[in-house]
Each structure stands twice: as structure tokens, then as C-alpha cells.
Amino acid sequence: MLSIHAISRSFKGKQALKDVSFDVHDGLMTGFVGANGAGKTTAMRIILGVLAADSGEVRVDGRPITADDRAQFGYMPEERGLYPKMQVHEQLVYLGRLHGMSGADAAMRADLLLEQLGLAERSRDTLESLSLGNQQRAQIAAALVHEPTALVLDEPFSGLDPMAVEVTLEVLRDVARAGAPVLFSSHQLDVVERLCDSLVILAHGEVRAAGTRDEIRAAHTRPEWVLETGDAGFVRGIAGIEVLEFDGGHVRFTADDPEAADRVLREAIERGAVRSFAPSIRPLNEIFQEVVR
Ligand SMILES: Nc1ncnc2c1ncn2[C@@H]1O[C@H](COP(=O)(O)OP(=O)(O)OP(=O)(O)O)[C@@H](O)[C@H]1O
């Protein structure tokens, strides 16, 4: 597990990160979201050791991170860093060898990644001759070539078309499935909501919410249910229920506890036909807007 523990960092007196703590669990895709300037890139640079924290610590499995740990990480920086005039495959092999792989292993891994990322036919082309979306895929391959023990990716999905997002996602999921912690930043909350197992919401240099989607929803929503039935008027008389919306056979309500919601369902069944009964799920987008204010 990768942990960011009580990290603070200022630039010229302006605090970019304020006592930031969160965990990136092994085997999970953790989305790192926040508006422009929230501090995502600064936090990622500190994880990778390209920037020092003023205070706080990055930990791997509970102990302070070392240069060896970092050397085994895969990183996709905001300022993309490949050689424009070098062929894609050659470049991946070169990077793999820098990480201590044999030429043959690096070539095999490069072939596999380029195939998975849909770049096999462009593998002998120079990076600069590729479209921006394909350059982005090559960047992702570069972060993965040495079979990293953890992945830290700054905006890996930006500029990718929906098909490329799916392909990239599958490749990243493979890394997570193999047990590595994967942290990726994004502005696109809809993408993150769909792709990540867990998320960290940052605003003005502070963690405003963290956890799985369900944990964040539970922490920021009073659970709501929607019942569609013949006449829903009886719901008003049930203890522990507050009716939010009522229209004949339709009622939306909150309950003090799930037991109270069960009582509504049981009573509705006794009274006749239940067309539907379901929790009303608050969109993450709405929670995000609320917590980053
Ligand atoms: N090297 C630097 N010198 C001065 N200020 C900096 C530096 N790096 C970051 N900052 C400031 O720190 C704050 C956080 O920036 P950061 O790039 O980490 O945010 P971000 O969440 O990654 O934003 P974006 O999504 O726009 O990339 C901003 O106010 C930024 O201007």
C-alpha cells in the first residue's frame, strides 16, 4: 500500500497542499480528482520524489518510501517525457533496459503493451509522427514497460477517445489485478466515477473526501428510497420516515435507518401492488460539487 501521510507543501508562501493524507491500496484503481490548481500534480510529484514535501511522509506498506521503491514505480508525468524522434518500440525497450530488464524481455513486454494498447502497427514509427491520442498511448506503455510495482499517472485519459479510454483502462486494470496500487488523476469526474475502485477528492490543497464510491456516498448522503405503488399516502404515517416528494403512487423518502425503509416496503406489499422500490442514488457529481466548495 502506498500512503501519503500529513503532507504539506507551499510555493512562495502559498500553500499548495495542507496536511494531505490518503492511501492507495494494492490492487485498486484510485482516482484523484480536483479542479485546476487543487494540488494533484504537486502531490504526485512528491510521491515520485521529484519534489520535496515541506513536512509529512510518503510510505510504502507503512515504512518510509525509498529510492529503490520509486525506481520500480511507473510514472506518467504531466509534462510528457518521451523522445519525439525515436521509434516507439525502440524507446520502450530503451526504458525497460534503464530499469534493468534484458533487451529480449523489454522487447517482449513492449510488443505485448503496444498490441494491448492498439499501437502495434505504429511501433516502428517515431513518436512525433503519431497523433496526440496515440502519443498518449505510447506514454502509458512507457509507464508500464518495466512491470511497475505501483503506478502514478497524471491525467492518463485526457485527450483519449472513448475507445482508447476503454483499452487503456483494461491495461491499467491488469496492473492493479497483479496487485499494484494505481493512482491516476483526472478532471473528468464522470470518467473517474466509472473507472476507479476508490477515489480521493482534493480541493484547495485539502482532502475533502476519500474512500470507495459507496463510502463517499454514504458519508455525504442521507439514504433515500423511491417507492412506486397504488397509493403511497400511507408512508407519511410510518415512524422514522421523512417524505421528500409525494405524488399519488410515487413517494421519495429518507429513513433514519434501513429498518424503517423495510417497514415501508412490507406495508406497501400488504396493501397491494409494488411497481418498484429502490434506493435513490445520489450522483457523485453532486457530492463533488458540495465537498469542493
Ligand atoms: N513549481 C511551482 N511554483 C509555484 N507554484 C506552484 C508550482 N507548482 C504548483 N504550484 C501551485 O500550486 C497549486 C497546485 O498546483 P497543481 O499543479 O498541483 O494542481 P493540479 O490539481 O495538478 O491542477 P491541474 O489540474 O490544473 O494540473 C497551484 O496554485 C499552482 O499554481
From TrEMBL:
Residues in domain ABC transporter?
A: 2-229
**Cell membrane as a keyword?**
no
InterPro entries from the entry?
A: AAA+_ATPase, ABC_transporter-like_ATP-bd, ABC_transporter-like_CS, DrrA1/2-like_C, P-loop_NTPase
**Gene Ontology molecular functions:** ATP binding; ATP hydrolysis activity
Keywords annotated in UniProt: ATP-binding, Nucleotide-binding, Transport
Q: Sorted alphabetically, which SUPFAM superfamilies does this protein's record hold?
A: P-loop containing nucleoside triphosphate hydrolases
Q: Cytoplasm: present as a keyword of the record?
A: no
Domain of life per record: Bacteria
What the record says about family reads:
Belongs to the ABC transporter superfamily.
Protein's recorded name: ABC-2 type transport system ATP-binding protein
Q: Which organism is it from?
A: Agrococcus carbonis
